[in-house]
């Protein structure tokens, strides 16, 4: 089990900011609990939650009971552990624009995966990082995939570079200002990032060795909205097979991914 940690410093700092005129202590308690449990797939005991949040046992007890009643948190059968339910996940996928985009993307991604014999995923910008909102595996027994619902770095992933490169200047600056480093994220200074984003804009895509895994080439194209900004990034973590199977090449996969991204961009018009 992952060691429980208190809610992130930016979150707690925002809640405790001196210029925060509209305080809602009860809401802050509930959000602290949800954010804490989000990083604990096996759940935590009430005592562990109390210790990690630094709040009183009685207030945590009352808040936990309300979250259980509202079905945001589940209590284990033994009654001694608490974990997140899938309610937040379901609510997130009820958001109409995202739900529509995912619904449109999945059939197109299925076609790509079949043609390229590679997996692919779709990521959107969300609160300082990239959130994986759709994932399709390739037909082969071998492949590289990114877990649905995972977050990947904004500065060290092909998806992040594409989302930044195909955003207008104001939106790009806001995304960078909101950026939060993830565990293991490779840092990049402003000059190097600017050079990468310039190349991505010129090429129209990002293609290069993964900064997370050896032997993987990340290929990523933007899915563009009517305003020309990237709504999402469509990415293939390409793995070259070295057995006797003659599958599509890296360039074949890039061509298929371009077709998929263009098709999805046209659907947003």
From TrEMBL:
GO MF annotations in UniProt: DNA binding
Superkingdom as given in the UniProt entry: Bacteria
Keywords: DNA-binding, Transcription, Transcription regulation
SMART domains hit by this protein: HTH_ICLR (SM00346)
Sequence ranges of Low complexity compositional bias: 1-16
HTH iclR-type domain mapped to chain residues: 24-86
Domain IclR-ED: 87-269
PROSITE patterns: HTH_ICLR, ICLR_ED
Region (Disordered): 1-21
Entry-linked PANTHER family: HELIX-TURN-HELIX TRANSCRIPTIONAL REGULATOR, ICLR FAMILY, HTH-TYPE TRANSCRIPTIONAL REGULATOR KDGR-RELATED
Name the record gives this protein: DNA-binding IclR family transcriptional regulator
Organism: Rhodoferax ferrireducens
